[in-house]
Design a protein that fits this description.
This protein is of the alpha+beta class. It has four domains: 154 residues, Glutaredoxin; 129 residues, no CATH class; 176 residues, Glycosyltransferase (Alpha/alpha barrel), CATH 1.50.10; 74 residues. The protein is built from 23 helices and 19 strands. The strands form six sheets. It has a five-stranded mixed beta sheet with strand order 1-3-2-4-5, sandwiched between helices. β16, α22 and β17 form a beta-alpha-beta unit. α16 packs antiparallel against α17 and α19 runs antiparallel to α20. The radius of gyration is 25 Å and the shape is globular. The termini are far apart. The mean pLDDT is 95.
């Protein structure tokens, strides 16, 4: 049996390489073989730090007898949801027809033409608490395919048609007040332990960012303070775990994700909690940073302690004890979008060297003339196409770094990435090709989980470009995109924190602060720390200002240091006050 996963660009797929299951990677070959053999396809979707994915791999996919049965009656495809998020989104939407209890591993049974007709998540090797055994599920699906084919095909056809009608919302208007959304979030606060709701407890960093932007800072600060001293945060290495299984923040689910820690770094830096922010930055630098400067996507929840593999045991050890044990494995694939979030947070919080190293790596290895690479590992690029979140998040990170360093080339690359997706907010080349050929590609999904959607990320970057260039097409594109999301965001603020933050920025009276200086002083320190929704702040030398202006960033045109002194310009939609030299002379909201 060929080992098709050994050279995969996904560590998750590589972890299944030695299974007796005859796995295929996502691609047309598996579907063609299924059509030739006239058998259904099992599309099994997970990710490297997924606990129950590991469990099912050990219990079922490593079982030779079960694997032989699976190989005989199905063609099996293994997918990393972080590598192919569009594939995951389509089949997850399809799975909602069968169950409300969704998650990963996601196991979908589909026709050789890709049409989903049954699915679920984790199935145990033996019947347990009302859950059928995985072998029994396989047998039932195989029987239905053999003996009730018309019913199966009708089911697949109906679900595929429903997916085809799943479109991005249209219409709507940007809200004129965010007070109702803040009130809804306040009503969800856990008054006893902090955070929102009961168990499980997630950090919901995008929601906290919105609260800091929209007049809910007190709630955000309470939540951040509770998390900083909870079991959700690793006191040794400084990083945050993905969520806690208990309402009081205890018993974390121990994987550590790049996106959570990037977004939380930004929040803690904003509220002035320097120890927690610096702890996250140190965790990113010492644990998540890979050779070359980019960041791994996640660290596993399971580890081997004293020869026993168990979830979370490593994190119960002291620093000295950890030094004697192997650290939990990293998912070392470099995801463009998630690295963009890290670059943005590090740049804004003053960790410039870390941000620059990651940005330089991505520009060299992921930003190509013909395409943007979504993910790579060990220098090998995945064939998976980049998504809207990759374009938007990387553009946002590069713009933040350009503003922090005064280096225009980061802004130039960011502008190119945004331009590639405008005006329709679609990635170059369209949706994932195989998914599109199967009729399963969804319109760009506006919903948000633990991090911004591609629509929110790109709209945020586009609005920043408007503030820097004066080109109204950027502002118009951002407004139109956010107007389509606004009705959903208003109803469900817990699920649209990043989108609401972009809407706050679009509704704000924008201020553009440019400081031209040849050395650091009180004015530059103020400008670097000043932050307001819908505004930008930049410190540049006179030469850097000329470079920005020459590259088409109109905000910097004519910005010079008068008489060799640090000179600050406070502008509102490109109409500027007279230049000043002292912080106290600035007229800022």
């Amino acid at each position: 049996m060929p080992n098709r996963l050994a050279a995969a660009t996904s560590p998750y797929l590589r972890s299944h390489a030695d299974n007796p299951v005859d796995w295929f990677e996502w691609g047309p070959e598996a579907f063609a073989l299924a059509a030739q053999r006239d058998v259904p396809v099992l599309v099994s979707i997970g990710y490297s730090t997924c606990h129950w994915c590991h469990v099912m791999a050990r219990e079922s996919f490593s079982d030779p007898a079960l694997a032989a049965y699976l190989n005989e009656r199905f063609v099996a495809i293994k997918v990393d949801r972080e590598e192919y998020p569009d594939v995951d989104a389509s089949y997850l939407a399809a799975a909602s027809a069968f169950s409300e209890d969704l998650g990963w591993p996601l196991n979908m049974f589909v026709t050789p033409q890709g049409g989903p007709f049954y699915g679920g998540t984790y199935w145990p090797p033996e019947p347990l608490l009302g859950h059928p055994a995985f072998r029994d599920v396989l047998a039932a699906v195989s029987d239905a395919w053999t003996n009730r084919r018309e019913e199966v095909l009708a089911n697949a056809s109906g679900i595929t048609a429903a997916l085809a009608g799943y479109a991005r919302p249209t219409g709507g208007e940007l809200p004129d007040s965010f007070f109702p959304s803040v009130q809804r979030l306040e009503s969800l606060e856990d008054q006893r332990f902090g955070g929102f709701g009961a168990a499980p407890k997630f950090p919901v960093a995008t929601v906290l960012g919105f609260l800091l932007d929209a007049g809910g800072a007190a709630l955000a600060r309470r939540t951040l303070a509770a998390m900083a001293v909870s079991d959700l945060r690793d006191p040794v290495e400084g990083g945050f775990f993905r969520y806690s299984t208990k309402q009081d923040w205890t018993e974390p689910h121990y994987e550590r994700m790049l996106y959570d820690n990037a977004l939380l770094l930004d929040c803690y830096a904003r509220i002035g909690d320097t120890p927690t922010a610096d702890g996250i930055a140190a965790f990113l630098d010492t644990t998540m940073r890979l050779d070359g400067g980019a960041f791994a996507s996640a660290q596993d929840s399971e580890s081997t302690v004293d020869g026993v593999r168990v979830e979370g045991a490593y994190y119960e050890l002291s620093a000295e004890q950890r030094a004697t044990q192997p650290a939990p494995a990293l998912d070392a694939k470099v995801l463009t979008g998630w690295n963009g979030l890290a670059i943005e947070a590090l740049a804004r919080s003053g960790h410039i060297a870390q941000a620059r190293a990651a940005a330089d790596f991505l520009i060299e290895h992921h930003v190509r003339a013909d395409r943007l690479v979504r993910t790579s590992i060990d220098g090998v690029a995945s064939p998976a196409p980049a998504t809207l979140e990759d374009y938007g998040m990387l553009a946002g990170g590069l713009l933040a770094l350009a503003l922090a360093t005064g280096e225009v080339h980061y802004a130039v690359v960011a502008r190119r990435l945004v331009d590639d997706c405008l005006p329709s907010f679609q990635v170059p080349g369209g949706p994932e090709p195989l998914l599109a050929s199967l009729g399963l590609a969804l319109e760009t999904d506006p919903s948000e989980g633990a991090y911004p959607s591609g629509i929110s990320a790109l709209a945020n970057a586009a609005n920043t470009l408007w503030l820097l260039t004066s080109e109204t097409r950027y502002r118009t594109a951002a407004e139109q995109a956010m107007a389509s999301v606004a009705p959903l965001a208003d109803e469900r603020p817990m699920s649209f924190g990043a989108a609401l933050s972009v809407m706050v920025a679009l509704a704000a009276d924008p201020v553009q602060l440019v400081v031209v200086a040849e050395h650091e002083d009180e004015v530059t320190a103020f400008a670097r720390a000043w932050r307001r929704a819908g505004s930008v702040s930049s410190v540049v030398t006179a030469e850097q200002a000329r470079e920005f202006a020459s590259a088409g960033f109109d905000l910097y045109a004519g910005r010079t240091a008068h008489d060799g002194r640090t000179t600050a310009y406070a502008c509102r939609e490109f109409v500027c006050d007279l230049p000043v030299h002292e912080v106290g002379e600035l007229r800022l909201p």
